[in-house]
Amino acid sequence: MKKTIIITGGAGFIGSHVVRLFVNKYPDYLIVNLDKLTYAGNLANLKDIEEKDNYTFVKGDIVDTTFVQNIFDEFAVDGVIHLAAESHVDRSIANPIEFVMTNVVGTVNLLNATRTKWKDNYKDKLFYHISTDEVYGALGNEGFFTEETKYDPHSPYSASKASSDHFVRAYHDTYKLPVVISNCSNNYGPYHFPEKLIPLAINNIKNNKPIPVYGKGENVRDWLWVEDHARAIDAIYHNGKIGDTYNIGGFNEWKNIDLIKLLCKIMDEKLHRDPGTSEKLIAYVTDRAGHDLRYAIDASKLNTELGWQPSLQFEEGLEKTVDWYLANEEWLNNITSGSYKKYYEEQYENR
Ligand code: NAD
Ligand code: DAU
User: Fold this and answer.
1) CB of 160 closer than 6 A to ligand 2?
2) Is 134 a catalytic residue?
3) Ligand 2, atom 4: nearest CA belongs to which residue?
4) Is 33 touching ligand 1 by the criterion CB < 6 Å?
5) pLDDT tens for residues 152-205?
6) Which residues is 305 bridged to in the sheet?
7) CATH number of the domain enclosing 298
8) Minimum-distance ligand to the CA of 145?
């Protein structure tokens, strides 16, 4: 094998798309998927590639220092693409400490292990940290996040991600560890866990349950097709400049309520319901605490320097997403029938 890359969080939503892309595109790389399989990790996301010769899965917790060190003894690692994280803002509001452990301590464990293993020879090595646009805080009605925007996180989730970004940069500045960071906007597409807005709404519409819209539904997110994020990660892993940051976004801003109305229209068509049927399920509920008003990414650096751009229009991507969820009922039912059901009931009980 030409290279060995550890992808952390490879059984999650975005991680599974990154693993799939790398395993299929680079048959001469060994891809090691390192994942704890929390509630959000699901090996069913990788069924189509799990038998490939250049893929292997290791179950473990990045918070466990000894486990992380052992992995770097077992594999001659050339690169790390670090996606493992607690990723849901509402869960971070309910239980921040989990986010500090995985997102901060787990990241520092990985940084330490790579530094120890690589310190005599950094040539052709790379620690690639996957981060979020939420570290930049909230925008008003105007402007975009650029790579120079000052960090201003508001939720325990975004504070933990910001902290991990700072550690990654600190290891570059202090120990010269070869790192790169990207900060991406909201992803959507297949295998998205149904606690997040789009898959949660699809599932509820399908089951004729209320669609919980926080506050007035006026918050704005910039949505990106998840496979486009995976392609951006590929471009940055191979051609990004060491020590640099790249913003990734869809140039695709939607108010939550407008997005939900579009989704309702698509679902009415797919489920052969009368126009307007699904919209009746919209239920305005108590707002998220500290809810950031607007995120919007300026991804022009990635476009200019590495030639990346999104491949799909949102309407097309949303329809593909709906088709995927309707065709993969078993995947969805396996998730929504387990411990997630309890979380869902608690989360929405008093809203
Ligand atoms: P996800 O919650 O779907 O998946 C996270 C994965 O990490 C799961 O497979 C889980 O089992 C694993 N994991 C969690 N804790 C772990 C631990 N302690 N040790 C090992 N594995 C652990 O998350 P996602 O939405 O795919 O996000 C992946 C990454 O991308 C995260 O770092 C997130 O901050 C970032 N990101 C996400 C989005 C988005 O829209 N979802 C946007 C920008 C950036
Ligand atoms: O911006 C990137 C981030 O996008 C990632 O870093 C996070 O990991 C990812 O979860 C996502 O965060 P958001 O908080 O933006 O995603 P979520 O799907 O939870 O919510 C999207 C918007 O919809 C947000 O404004 C809150 C709102 N919302 C969400 C849920 C779950 C609702 O109105 N109702 C809901 O039930």
Assistant:
1) no
2) yes
3) 186
4) no
5) 999 999 999 999 999 999 999 999 999 999 999 999 999 999 999 999 999 999
6) none
7) 3.40.50.720
8) 2
